[in-house]
Amino acid sequence: MAKLIALYKHPENKEAFDQHYFEVHGPLTAKIPGLQEMNVTKIVGSPMGGDGKYYLMCEMVYESQEAMQAGMRSLEGKASGKDLMSFAGDLVTLMIGEDVHADTTVR
């Protein structure tokens, strides 16, 4: 399992950002071949108080790194990337991750 993780800093105009993200960018990204799951989290605060550094996080889950790379090279992946750079290029940090299953029990 591979994840493409996008972290967005606070935009100047949150209403305009949300409108574009949820009405344009999200639906465009959801069409990427091989994308199994897309989880969007709005960051509502920091344990230390205040807003924190980030505004939004999106985790895009693929079966493998190969599937993710193929999706990014597809027409839909390229369209999503172009849109991302047009509205949030200065706000976004992208990372690739893999799930790690630790043998821990929460009590």
UniProtKB/TrEMBL annotation:
Query: What Gene3D superfamilies has UniProt attached to this entry?
Result: 3.30.70.100
Q: Which domain of life is it from?
A: Bacteria
For this UniProt entry, the molecular function terms from Gene Ontology, in alphabetical order, are:
oxidoreductase activity
Q: Which residues form the EthD domain?
A: 10-88
Record protein name field:
EthD family reductase
